[in-house]
Amino acid sequence: MSRESHEKKTKSDLEFQLGTFVFSLKNNELRNENGNTFHLRHQSSDALAYLLRHNGELVSKTELIENLWSDTFVTDDSLVQCIADIRRVLNDTDHRIVQTLPKKGYKIEAVPIATAERQSVEHAIVETSKIPRLMLIGLAIAVVTGLFIWQTIRSDFEPLDPADANLALPERPSIAVLAFDDQSQGDDKGYLSDAISEEIIARLSHFSDFFVIAKNSSFYYRDKKVDLRDVAKELGVRYVLEGSQQKSGEKLRVTAQLVDATVGKTIWVEKYDRDLVEIFALQEDITRTIAATLEENINQAEYNRLLRQKTESLEAYELVNRGRAERLKFTPEGHVLAKELSEKALAIDPGYSEAYFSLAWVHINCFRWAWCGDRPQEDALDQAFVAARKAVELDPDSSLAHWVLANATMQSGDLEQAVIEYDRSIALNPNSAGVLADSTEPLVYLGRMDEGVARIKAAIRLNPHHPDWYYWTLAWALYFAGEYEAGLWAIKQMANIPNLARRTQAALLVRLGRIEEAEAAIEKLLQNAPDYRIELQQHSLEGKFRDPSFADRFIEDLRAAGLPD
Asked: Domain limits of the chain?
């Protein structure tokens, strides 16, 4: 089909189905299944419209830039940001809708909807309003296209079950890096092997060409005898990296094996004998080999830029890893120790960005949860900004640095800027499930509940064996989206409910009319935090919701459940 004839055809196809979304070429408007409009940056909206006008065709980067921004200086990086923005909003984590053809350009696969067909779909949705919402999505797509299967869509009551062994393989090379076995002896057993695996995950995750399973899910299999084929099925990946390390004095031996687990074939296996001080170079060697094996077209200059050595000090590196372990216990005591460890790491290496990242989180949680010990709580947010901005200054291309700056910005109430920082962090590391999950919060504050729920579900797909706080975030977002049963389902999936999560549990129970159970949840909260009061909750939410009535509703539900003023 010629480009001109395709242009004429799309004039009558004013709307396109993009997964669960509809985009109108008439006004460049993106809507979800409920008809709510989703915001796209102007440049991103223009790029999406242009791709849809050439639906199913290859469009080069040069063509996009020349036709959309001929009067404006726009770099390739700006276009990449637009594509990442589109995929983020569409929840297109597997790049099924917007496809990248390496060194060629982009192609979008969408379903044209004529006006009459669109009205038919909308009528069907209205007439069947008692059917669960995500079933309606399937119905609407069936009306337009017949059978169209979406692997990532689930019932609101079953959000992306981690045990699902039928996850479709992403189109991109997909890999899980398992925790390396530690055959060393001594008190620090486990720290170094974890650090090696984590660093390989972090470095591979910077590349949008790869689909990299998050650490929490791949580490789920630690110390378990597993068949790598089963691991690959459970996580929805093709490749698995496993290995071991053994430290003896100042010597380190690491063995790594890359397996195509879909067929049980070993692609390569390598043994490394190094001095302990060479651990950073070792991590680069392993990562570089995997990258070259899975994707030959990765730009080597870009790869070298991303693989900057973070610190020269092994001691500082270990301190930060120990601090992170303490911080993720999510207790006041753990945060006090995490602060001490981060400060020790900075005393050794003042230029270590990730140590500032860790310290900034400590200050944020001090401000948010009053976990400051003897420190003034009102100063904590200022200290968080200082540490976060220092992390960005030391490493402007660090996804982690922009993540913690985004959260600090959100705590200050500047929600739009927080979303910008979160999106910047995601663009720098598209595989970071933690950033995706955490970025749910400002979207909910802005009233973009459906988008927030979609974001946390995308994070769960990247990290099927995720930590409990993902379910907490999902339940919290579903509460404000009015999906109370689904929210309570998410709460019940947590192996150990964090004490502060009982607030969300209680509010959901109040909304469902289960007052006695709500009161029991608050009673447990107060057993562990006897000084927690409505005043602390109000401080946590102060000035955050664009519509204050949402915060007021949450406060009143907690009060109804028995939380004292």
From this structure: 3-113, 174-306, 310-430, 461-565
